[in-house]
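Same chain as my last thread, 373 residues:
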Amino acid sequence: MSYTEVINLTRKLVSFNNINPPGNEQEIAEFVGHFLTDNGFSIRYHQLEPNRLTLIAEKGLSAEKPPIVLTGHFDTVPLGDKTWTKDPFSGEIMDGKLFGRGTSDMKAGLAAMIMASIDAMKLSPRGGVRLIFTAGEEPGCHGALHLANTAYNVGKASAILVGEPTANIPSIGHKGALYLKVSTSGKTAHSSMPDLGVNAIYKAARAVTRIENFQFRAKKDELHGFPTINVGLINGGKNLNSVPDHAEFTIDIRSTGKLSHSEIFERLSAELGEEVIIRKLVDLPAVSSDENSSFVKVVYEVCGVNPETQNLRKSLPYMTDGAVLQQLYGGVPTVILGPGQPEIAHQTDEFCYVSKIEEAVEIYKNIILKNAE
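reply #2:
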């Protein structure tokens, strides 16, 4: 394989507009499916919604050993309000950077996984390989959750590689995610007579203030540190001169292994009281892997890192499909490792270094082969 192939494939994947919402992952999934079929992979599709597909591709599976799973997602975030200086769907290359929405998060990772898997399978590694490329990851791993919740047969796995952006530096876990929507109700009235109404925004404001001062009282997790909480979106009311009868806001909690989501939910509910109604949007655990596992050691070796002498970011603050798939595969070692730049993900003029994409192909290929030994 020449590196030109993986760069061309990355540019082709970037040309698909998979901004979520709505995602529209069917066309890109079918393109990748045909590409892998032409290279001897068997293909399955799992429908999340109309025009939205998750792709499962396999090759070389046997009863001898479960395959390694390489996973990523097709969808991307919106372009944002700031004007791009590059066409977000052209895959333009300049100064060693490949530009476009989804380059770092994470179509470069998908392309590298595809080409590495094709190349590695020419040597028939024991156990084979499975690729799981999901729809609907960005809002909360919806595609992966749909696989799990519908009891879709994804087989067994020996280990999982998640191709999210890490600049090709491996991480052995990430925090969990508990997303909540909080709503308050009131009674509308003319704003000149507020005593005749009940202001739902005031209720929401009191709740937000309590959240700002909320204490988890959790012990520090050796891998993930401390949990965090953030109010990211708030709205309420219909017009300036009315007392609002409805308001709502969202809470984003990033959790560790030291405090369960049920305990967090109970304590937060008690803190906010009866003025609010809380609904769960996303409930996914943290991802953790044992550094002493043979798979993690293989990854460290291939990446040329020494966790004892190098200051690695072993846990990531963002969420991935690994939170779903690690559970689905019975807790197998899971490593997040991809060519994208984490600080560039979701940014205007998003890019991925061409050299990192090329490097990722060799890294993935060698991990597949060494994991099979």
